[in-house]
Specification:
about 10% strand; about 150 residues; 2 strands; 6 helices; mainly alpha; two-stranded antiparallel sheet
């Protein structure tokens, strides 16, 4: 669902207990009343400003950035940004629901995340030098290790 910039601004004001757009602008680090320009659509927030607004509102900054790109664009580009924002929101909601579910992790036979082989984190580490007792083979430069994400 594509929210409006006004929704983010109102939510940020409510979360911070601010009554005016001027005060919100000051809390965001602006000297002028830039929030008024945002509300009248004469200007759009920069990416950094949108991150600060989303964080102040208690929302996911990644989704807010996708939505900001949708607001700035028109036509097919706006539709794609809107679709990405929706997918990212769905993934985030799914992950939050999964983490709150009791005993969802490492439960054999459920097919849920955390089961061995489902979620794998690959970590690149420098290979350890071989001892002189090993036969002379070319040592790998990097080795991959894997572990299941709990």
């Amino acid at each position: 669902m594509l929210r409006s910039l006004d929704n983010y601004l109102d939510q940020a004001k409510a979360a911070a207990g601010i009554g005016s757009d001027n005060e919100l602008g000051r809390r965001l680090g602006f000297k002028s009343n830039i929030v008024c320009l945002y509300r009248t659509k004469r200007s759009w927030p920069s990416d950094d400003a949108m991150i600060r607004i989303a964080e102040m509102a208690g929302e996911n900054p990644d989704i807010a950035l996708c939505q900001l790109s949708a607001w700035r664009n028109a036509g097919p580009a706006a539709n794609r940004w809107q679709t990405m924002a929706g997918k990212l929101a769905a993934i985030t909601a799914d992950q939050m629901a999964e983490s709150r579910r009791p005993h969802a992790k490492n439960k054999p036979g459920t097919g849920r995340r955390g089961e061995a082989g489902d979620c794998i984190l690959w970590k690149i580490q420098p290979a350890r030098p071989r001892s002189m007792a090993c036969p002379p083979e070319p040592a790998p430069f990097l080795k991959l290790t894997r572990r299941s994400i709990p």
